[in-house]
């Protein structure tokens, strides 16, 4: 029987780790399942919960699940109905364009803090902006945190990451289009299927995500006003 740092006997299936936390281990059908806790009281509770789930088929073997498979589940079950459509699409875009190549086929349980740190350092070397790095970290970190909560992984490896910063980034002056340039742009865009999108963007100052999230009911043509889940109310004059 295992003992804690003070020599006190611990319940069967529970051991104290070098950092003072506790590991719970339960075996079923030749397979070992683990959970982690900060206190012995929490460890006893998690052991009982783990045994109950195992005995009632509540645990699915998750050691082989890849990050790509988990990302799909996370988006569908935790994000689809809790974030705005624009945010949801942004998450998908960043996954497809940046995260997917590196982690899609990696087993979720094999991703370590050092893997993530090297990934962010590599993105920095490719001149990704600080804002892009923060968003990628938020997406990866949130999905991994949920995997930890769901007991698919024993810890969130993102906790070990220090996000690098581009020290040489200089702010570029933002120059708005003149009215003449706007008119010329819209003339060239008149045959584009995105013409209405460009028109709303130029005449309202709305952000891309806000425009994509608009619904037909948000547009009051009679009074020339756009309503909706926006940070501002935009008054437009429709031709």
UniProtKB/TrEMBL annotation:
InterPro entries hit by this protein: CB (IPR044068), DNA_brk_join_enz (IPR011010), Integrase-like_cat_sf (IPR013762), Integrase_catalytic (IPR002104), Integrase_recombinase_N (IPR010998), Integrase_SAM-like_N (IPR004107)
Function: Site-specific tyrosine recombinase, which acts by catalyzing the cutting and rejoining of the recombining DNA molecules.
Gene: Int-Tn_2
Protein name per UniProt: Transposase from transposon Tn916
Keyword DNA-binding: yes
Family named by the database record: Belongs to the 'phage' integrase family.
GO molecular function, one term: DNA binding
Domain Tyr recombinase: 172-239
């Amino acid at each position: 029987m295992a003992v804690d740092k003070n020599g006190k006997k611990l319940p069967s299936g529970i051991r104290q780790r070098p950092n003072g936390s506790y590991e719970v281990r339960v075996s079923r059908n030749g397979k070992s399942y683990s959970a982690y806790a900060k206190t012995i009281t929490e460890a006893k509770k998690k052991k009982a919960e783990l045994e109950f789930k195992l005995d009632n088929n509540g645990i699915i073997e998750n050691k082989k699940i890849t990050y790509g498979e988990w990302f799909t589940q996370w988006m569908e079950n935790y994000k689809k109905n809790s974030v705005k459509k624009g945010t949801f699409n942004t998450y998908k875009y960043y996954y497809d364009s940046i995260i997917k190549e590196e982690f899609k086929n990696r087993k979720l349980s094999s991703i370590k803090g050092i893997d993530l740190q090297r990934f962010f350092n590599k993105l920095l070397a490719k001149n990704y902006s600080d804002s892009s790095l923060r968003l990628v970290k938020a997406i990866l970190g949130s999905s991994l945190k949920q995997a930890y909560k769901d007991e698919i992984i024993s810890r969130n490896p993102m906790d070990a990451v220090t996000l690098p910063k581009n020290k040489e980034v200089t702010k570029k002056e933002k120059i708005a289009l003149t009215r003449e340039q706007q008119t010329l742009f819209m003339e060239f865009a008149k045959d584009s299927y995105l013409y209405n999108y460009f028109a709303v963007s130029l005449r309202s100052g709305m952000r891309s995500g806000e425009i994509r999230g608009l619904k037909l009911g948000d547009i009051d043509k009679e009074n020339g006003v756009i309503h909706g889940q926006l940070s501002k109310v935009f008054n437009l004059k429709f031709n």
